[in-house]
Prior knowledge:
CDP-alcohol_PTase-I; CDP-diacylglycerol-glycerol-3-phosphate 3-phosphatidyltransferase activity
Amino acid sequence: MVEQKSLLQELKTIPNMLSLLRLALVPVFLILVLTEQEGLALITLIVASATDYLDGFLARKLNQTTRLGALLDPAADRLYILATLIGLAVTGNIPVWLPFVIIGRDVLLALTVPMLAKYGYGPLPVHYLGKAGTFALLYAFPLLLLAQVWQSAQFVILPLSWAFAIWGIGLYWWSGVLYVKQVFSVVLEARKTD
Length: 194
């Protein structure tokens, strides 16, 4: 009963409510992208990005950092990346291979969860390179949408968005490799103590 109350209390914090709002906007955003309403999709993404900034800022400012918030924030980031990839690939705004490259890294990391769980560990902390890669991707995709909305400026926006995308993919995978190495170190250390 104590755990449920603590979870309920965590849900009631302003930062976590903002994270929940951001999560609720994911399907709205995806529908807007799929129906090629790029302007509204971009506005939705801007609102979601603002809540992303605010939830972290307020969590620190109000001393309301929670375990739930630490899970909701990266989950929302991943869902926005996934929704954007699906929407842009289906509408033909990005090559079909791009979602597979980005999602492939997350699948690889998901495969490490059972290994960690076997030795009593949860997911390991996110590496700063992973955060930098996510940051770059979260810049690349709105810029790709902006290029669809503001077509006369595509000659500037598209190279910039693809630069962010390529850097994001590189950092995303580099952090993934480092994460897998860290998982194997933790598992090998745990086996020594068994």
